[in-house]
Amino acid sequence: MIDPKLFQNDIDAAANKLRARLGVRGRNFATRLKRAGRDLPKPARQAGRRLVELQAMVAHPRLRRLVSRTEAEAALKELGAHLDKINASERRMDRLLGFAGSAVGNLLLLAVLLIAFMRWRGLI
Fold it and tell me: How many domains does the chain contain in total?
């Protein structure tokens, strides 16, 4: 059997880690996990889904007896292991550099098309 308060503290910590590392928002852990989506690898997503299932079971007095602490800890460990590897500032920098590279590539393409059009019309 598992203590509901301790389990909820662990779930809250995982939800806060999702917010800090991936920047996902939501009212509860299930919403944040859903919004994280493909940012998490499959094993971490499955562990998160299992935690959501366990959270519902822990909330029910009779089903709480079916939840083992080791199962919950294994799922928390799996999700936490991946979230610990994520560097939030590096993710922001990668996103910014990707946007800048895309913008520069589009400007180069526009310049090439403009020069080709001007050459075709005999302006150059």
Answer: 2
Place of tokens 């403009």: 114
Residue 82 has pLDDT above 90, yes or no: yes
Return d(Cα 81, Cα 97) in angstroms, integer. Answer: 27
- Assess contact for 58 and 9: CB atoms under 8 A: no
CA–CA distance, 71 with 54 (Å, rounded to integer): 9
Residues 71, 49, 18, 37, CA torsion sign: positive
65 and 105 fall within a common domain: no
- Per-residue pLDDT reduced to its tens digit, 14-52: 999 999 999 999 999 999 999 999 999 999 999 999 999
* pLDDT value of position 40: 93
Q: Which domain covers residue 105, as residue numbers?
A: 87-124
**Six-digit token string for 40:** 């998490």
